[in-house]
Amino acid sequence: MKKHIIVQKFGGSSVANVDRIKTVAKRIFETKTKNNNVVVVVSALGDTTDELEELAFNITKNPSEREMDMLMSTGEQISCALLAMAVKELGHDAISFTGNQVGIKTDSSHTKARIETICGKRIKAALKQNKIVIVAGFQGVSDEDEITTLGRGGSDLTAVALAVALKANVCEIFTDVKGIYTTDPRVVKQARKIQNITFDEMLEMASLGAQVMQARSIEVAKRFNIPIHVRSSFSKEEGTMIVKKDEKLEEISVRGVTSNKKESKITICSVPDQPGIAAQIFTEISKSGANVDIIVQNVSHTKLTDISFTIPTSDFNKALDATTKIAKKIRAGEILTDKNISRISIVGSGMRSHHGIAAKMFQALAKNKINIDMISTSEISISCIIDQKQTDEAVKILHKAFQLDKI
Ligand code: ADP
Ligand code: ASP
Ligand code: MG
Question: Which of 184, 233, 234, 343 to mutate to test the pocket of ligand 1 (most atoms within 8 A of CB)?
Fold first, then answer.
């Protein structure tokens, strides 16, 4: 009988210390003894990636992205070697590999590289020798033989991409919560575990701040239709299945609530209200590499208008430099900035067919004196920009207003 190939990914908190590494090793060993081929993807131990980043920023405000990748990729190299040792200690042969060693080829955009191909020859050879294969997550190699990383949370992407390349039967993401919840269970204790969620809804939740899965990994899973099982490293309980839309799945109007505190706002005041000005501004900002999100332009009665937009806080400095330059060129007025904003969102594919959802969201916020600064919608989500101090409160209010504690 042909053996199943199972890809299992363990996140940082699942391997935060020696005891946890040993527990993970036992779990992998159990999967292997059920006559499976097991390929494991592992993240850096605990908060290693954050600590490495902090070290770099203690040395320079502007580290080169190439050197950041050299640095950040070391975290996963440590954890994969340790995990291989722990598995061997249990009496089963195992081998660890870096992304480069298993041929995870990426483009050359350091710190956010895209996977182009995976060769996987060494993985297949090691599986043939009945070894448990442990791959360092979050990293690859470019055509120029440079080490690259896949963006924060990128081990999820390594796992899904390997599942595609190896035609795995199952892709399991082990983390420190029991699955995908209606909102972050660390913020709202009434949050409920979701049994099944569609790729589209998970992609939207992940893009809007639910860090439990990296958004790009869901894009790949959706494209290749790889179902993902998100579950706990610390329990045997079934978690959440992320799957293609199933006709049997009832379309729920609001599936979850998310928040993102890592956004900032820039406003350019007194912008000449003429054709082509917005194009000039946002061309300049896009050239800086900053990712603009919500844009609001005020109605102009005076031939001068204000334009506000949000960007990820990590892009703030480059966006502000570009804005300052273009504002001067087009003779706009003052530039205002606000890093103390956050985005709260509701997500659900049933929004397409239910009406009154936005009104209910705004009413719930208004009743609790939470001011809405900006609004943005997609087919299956509604987001509001609010004062960052009120983020957790707003999440709790919306979770309750849409009765997500009762599903
Ligand atoms: P890992 O280290 O396993 O990759 P992460 O820290 O990246 O884990 O993601 C797991 C965390 O995501 C949880 O501890 C939880 O606080 C957070 N989270 C945010 N939103 C959700 C959600 N809707 N469902 C589950 N977890 C969520
Ligand atoms: N260690 C990397 C990070 O913290 C990748 C990952 O854990 O998925 O972002
Ligand atoms: Mg993660």
Answer: 184
Q: Does domain 257-406 have CATH number 3.30.2130.10?
A: yes
> In angstroms, rounded to a whole number, what is the distance separating the alpha carbons of residues 263 and 18?
35
Residue 151 CA from chain centroid, whole number: 8
Model confidence pLDDT, tens digit, residues 8-27: 999 999 999 999 999 999 99
CATH topology of domain 4-176: Carbamate kinase (3.40.1160)
| 237-285 per-position pLDDT tens digit | 999 999 998 666 567 789 999 999 999 999 999 999 889 999 999 999 9
Would you list the domain boundaries of the chain? 4-176, 257-406
Q: Find the 136 Cα to ligand 3 centroid distance in Å.
A: 14
212: Cβ below 6 Å to ligand 1? yes
Which among 212, 156, 214 is positioned nearest to 186, based on CA atoms? 212
Looking at the chain, how many residues does it have? 407
**Ligand 2 proximity of 209 Cβ (cutoff 6 Å):** no
Taking the model in full, what pTM does it have? 0.94
